[in-house]
Amino acid sequence: MKRPKPEYHPPEEQLRLFPDITGNDLNGRGEEALRRPSPIYWHYGSDIKLPHRALQDYYMKQFEDKPELHDFDKKYGGRGARQHVERPDVPVEDSPERWAEKVKSHALSHEGDLVGIARIDPNWVFEGYELELPWIVMIGVAMDHAEISTAPELPSAVETMAQYNRGTRAARQVADFIQAQGYEARPHGGPMAGPMTLIPAAIQAGLGELGKHGSMINREYGSSFRLAGVMTNLPLIADAPDDFGADDFCVSCQVCRNACPPDAIFDDKQMVRGERKWFVDFDKCIPFFNDTQGCGICIAKCPWSRPGVAHSLAQRMTARRARNASGEHGDHD
Ligand code: SF4
Ligand code: SF4
Fold this sequence. Notes:
By secondary structure, the chain is of the alpha+beta class. It has helices at 12-15, 23-26, 53-65, 96-108, 145-148, 154-180, 199-204, 246-252, 255-259, 282-291, 297-301, 310-325; strands spanning 114-119, 135-142, 185-189, 209-210, 216-217, 225-232, 270-272, 275-277.
C-alpha cells in the first residue's frame, strides 16, 4: 500500500507575505491570449515590478543563513569572468550554418553538456524588459543525480547552485567567443532571471520537452540538468524541437504529482497565456520551495532523471509513437 504523503501547511510567516494578486494569475493561468510573461521570481532590479518580492527576500534569507549557499556565485568554480572580450569593429564573415557549428562546438568544449539554437520569440521577453537580439544559444549542464536525490535537503540545493555556476561559465565562454568575432552577445545563467524566460527557448532549440513538473525533460539527462543561454546577433540557424515522447509519458505518469508535498502539480495541462501546457501551481509550490532552499523533489523523482534511464526510455517512446502513427495496435508499454 502506498504510504500517504505527510501533509504540508504553509507557515503563517510566509502566508503573511503573499501579495493580493496570486502567482497563478500573474503567470497568466486561464488566459486565452498570447502575451509576454510577467516577472514573478528571481528578478532583482528595483525598477522591476515584483509583487512577490517579500517572498523572494524570504527565500534569499536562507542563502545568507547557510554557509554552503551564501555567496554561492563565488564558490563551486565560480561563474567565470563577467567582462566581455573586446569586440572588433569589423565582424568576421561566415555562413549561419558555419557559425552555428562553431558556437555549438565552443559550448560543448567549454563545460556545456547540451546545446541548441532558437530564434527569439518576442513573447518570451519579460514585461518591462527590452531585447533586440534575434538569437539565443541554449546550453544545458547535467546535475549529479545522487546529489539532487537528497532534495529537499541542502546537498541538492548546493548541486543546483554549482551547476548554475557551470552553466553561467559556459555561457560566458560562448559570449566571449562571439564577441571576439565582432558580434554582440549577452550571456545569462540562473538562478536569477534574465530578460527572457528560458524554457520555451530550450524547447524550440531541441533541448527537450516540458514535463508535468514544469521543468524540462531531455532525452539523455531527463530532468537532471539546468539551463543557461547566450542572446546574440551572430547570424545563426535554428534547431528543431525534439519531441521524443516525454509529453506522452507525462500524461499517464503520476510520480512528481504524488511526490510533491504541497500538491502543486496539476494532472492536466492548463491554458497559460494562450497555450495549453503543463503548469505548476506557483502559490502552492512557493512556500515549500522557500522553506527547503529550492525543493527540487519533482526533478529528482522524475523517472527520466535516473542515470542511464532517459536514453532507452526516449527510444521506447519514439518507437511507440511510430507504431501508433502507423496504426499498429497491441502496445502495452
Ligand atoms: S519544487 Fe517541490 S514544491 Fe515545487 S512543484 Fe516541485 S516538488 Fe512540488
Ligand atoms: S515524474 Fe512523470 S509526470 Fe512528472 S515530469 Fe517526470 S515523467 Fe512527467
